[in-house]
Amino acid sequence: MHSALVRIQNVFGFFTTVAFVTAIVVALSVTVIPQAPSADIHLRNVQVVKGRPYYHSYKREEYAHIRFDLDADLTSLFNWNTKQLFVWITATYPSKKASEPPSQAIIWDAIINSDSQKNPSTPFTLYSNIMNPPKISLKSRRSPKSKQQEVELAPGHVRLKNSKPKYQITDISGQLSSTSNVTLEVGWNVQPWVGALTWTMGEGNHWGRWKGIKGGRSKAFDMPALKVKGVNQEAVKGSGKPEKVAEASPIV
Q1: d(CA 159, CA 186)
Q2: Whole-model pTM?
Q3: What is residue 240's predicted lDDT score, i.e. its pLDDT?
Q4: Cβ burial, residue 169 (10 Å; 0-12/13-18/19+)
Q5: How far apart are CA 157 and CA 168, in angstroms?
Q6: Is the dihedral of CA 92, 100, 213, 218 positive or negative?
Q7: What is the mean pLDDT of the chain?
Q8: Confidence band (pLDDT; 50, 70, 90) for 192?
């Protein structure tokens, strides 16, 4: 007869083995789910300013302020093993030296949580929903069916219109004016519940049933030249007409 301690060790060892095998199966099962993300990004306005890009900056330098439009459909990246999706937009431009790789700077990012992350299902939440079911008001019952109701989009839809950047672009050289061949690119990182992180696949690439992003890159544009107006004034030169300030946030 085995002692109680041996029995507990055997049960715990069996439990960890089953949990480990289940995690491997879940991590590998998502490879059979097709993925076909797409994104459409356009430049709205760009300005080059000479000043202090951040309040903690100790020197004046040139930095760029880029507004953009984004319409992305990343819903295929969400499945039963997706915890959250980290999305960003980078501005890519040639380095000052031809021998160096292109420079990249992130101008916007966001974290999109999955439904299971936003509304986790636990024994406590299930008990709360059973004991305290959501109440339907009398007003909502009497509302006419013909009235259009708001439909919540699935996680992964990102629609930004004339969005302000979250981060300014600076260069190690301190100069950005008249920089040519600048592009905006969409990237992401899928963070699963179990398994390895997956990153952006470029257009035309594929891995099994996973396809690279369709679009996701803007047309190349040039940074405007810097026009100095005075010694004690910030110099601003914009490309295109100034747009209205618009707050934008991803629809998740």
Answers
A1: 13
A2: 0.73
A3: 47
A4: buried
A5: 25
A6: positive
A7: 79
A8: very high
